[in-house]
Amino acid sequence: MKRLLNGLAAVTVIGLVVLAFWLVFSGRTAPQPQVDATPPSSPGDTTSVVAAQPVDAATAAPTGAPTLAPFQSNHHPGVADLLRTKPAPGQSVEVDAYFSGASAAPFSRPPPPRDQVACPLFPGSRALTDRPFLGVLMYLNAATGNALPEDTPWLIAVTPEEAQPAVAGLPQLPYHARLRGHLGDAAFTNCDHADRIFMVEQVVKVYEQNPPDPPTFQLKPPAGYAKWPRYHDDRLGYSLPYPPDWQIQRLDDVTLSLKGPQWPGNPVVIAVHKGETHYDQYDPSVLPPLMQGQGFGVFEQGNWLFASDQSLPSSQRLAGYEVEQAPSAGSRSVSVLFSGNGYTYELRLVYPTGFAASQALLTDYTAIVEGFTLSKAPGPTPTAPIKQNLGSGPFLSQDQAATLARKRAGGTLELL
Description:
The protein is mainly beta. The chain is 7% helix and 25% strand. It has three helices and 17 strands.
């Protein structure tokens, strides 16, 4: 997940203990059914197998079903069918669905308390849908969960072991299958999207599998990346690579637009601003305008993308900042800021989320950012002057600060 830098006012940093943990998922899986290479039945197919369990309208709980955008599905019974006519809580039904977790990255998370059931986090990485859904999006130096749109049919998959206290994991399910299970499981009543949490009881049938490659936290370079043409702006002092079939348009004297034919509404915009942009660690409450957003983090070329591919051109190893925004429903914005020679260079992309998300667009954007160079290498980042005036207090003693840190961390911290 993205690392965010949050300003903490009036706190003296005594020491930093970094705890690194990775969630070890349960190795248990559902019994393996027979694989069926035939596609699920279409609306006009009279050979459909295993219909959904009938619903008794007299005993069914109020649905509270969301208003769903129209979508013609070839999966019957499918997720949209189930959400339009919800069964009673606990009633077993069958549903054909794609499982996004088959190609999702295993996000790490701390185990829940021993007496609590963990609510399913990162719903996009465990979604059941009527069409393939990218649960995880990768770009720059991080992976992030894709946002599930509220107005389309989807469910959140859980398995029986996850209903036990102190268990946290990711369901091990096929990419495309018919699943038997139920809604309204009591263990997840207090969780977000409780009405969409589907307890998988059994894998009934596995359809032909063709999931996307699971993320490895290292993107593969786009095809032909080493031979991409480069755009040079000698006046503003930068150059960058771009895909051969993309169009370049100058919007004004300092702004450039790179537009791919597959995503005409999502160009990569390069804007050059006078003055350099730097974060003052001694005054975190005041952010430069270009760094203001939902969050920001440090970015450096060459740290993550294509790191093992020695055949690609070496980067300039520029360091800067990555800024996140959510401009509207169904989209996000990411900007990378590089500073040098009296300018700030902003490389911005507004990209679609949900079912419209494209990993190829994000990979191309990352490749453009990684290949961005300055005509004159920037000097060292200026160091903000250390503030000598401490103010009026009151101040904490070392023991008081350590006690406060332990209380906020919710555990035991050792003062080094």
